[in-house]
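Table S4 entry, TCPR2 protein.
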Amino acid sequence: MASVASPVIFKEFCPLYYLLNAIPTKIQKGFRSIVVYLTALDTNGDYIAVGSSIGMLYLYCRHLNQMKKYNFEGRCESITFVKLLSCFDDLVAVGTASGRVAVFQLVSSLPGRNKQLRRFDVAGIHKSSITALAWSPNGMKLFSGDDKGKIVYSALDLDQGICNSSLVLEEPSSIVQLDYNQKVLLVSTLQRTLLFYTEEKSVNQVGTQSRK
C-alpha cells in the first residue's frame, strides 16, 4: 500500500508590524531629529533581539508580547551584533561599533531564576567594531571578534557577578563568524576558516588556500 503524503502547509511571510511598531523610527536629541536604523538581529524561542543605530537594544518577549529596552551608559553608538542564549538564565550579548561588549542577564518570572537585571562588561580589549559573538551552551563562556581580527574570551561567573576577559587569538583580517562547541571555537575571517582548540590553544586551518 502506498504511503500517504503529508499535507503541504503554505505559509505567508509578512513584516512583523507588532514588533516594528514598538520601535521608534526617529528620536529627538536636542534640536535634532535622528533617524533610527535597525542594525543587528537575533532570535530564539523566547525573544527577538534587535540592535539599533542609537545604541538601544530592543528585546521583544514572544510569550508576554512585551517590548523592553536596554542601552549602554555613556555615548550613543551603533550596535553591530547581538547574540541570545537560553540556558538556566536568559542572556543576551551586545557588541558596538567602538568595540564595547556587554552581557545582560535577564529577569525571569520562573522560580529559582534570576530576579534582577544584571550587566557584565567586556572592557578595554576590543578597539574596533564587533563583528561576531558566540556563547558556550551553559552561558559561562563568551567569545567576541572584531573587524581588526581580535578574538576575546570572557569567562562569566553569574553567581558571583564576575566577568574576566582576555585576548586569545589575533588574525590579520576581520572576523566574520564565530561558533563554539565542545572546547573548539570555529573562526571564519575574510581570509580563512580555522578551528581554535581552547584547551591546547592550538590552531588548525580548514583547507590550504586563503580566500581571494
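The chain has a mean pLDDT of 89.
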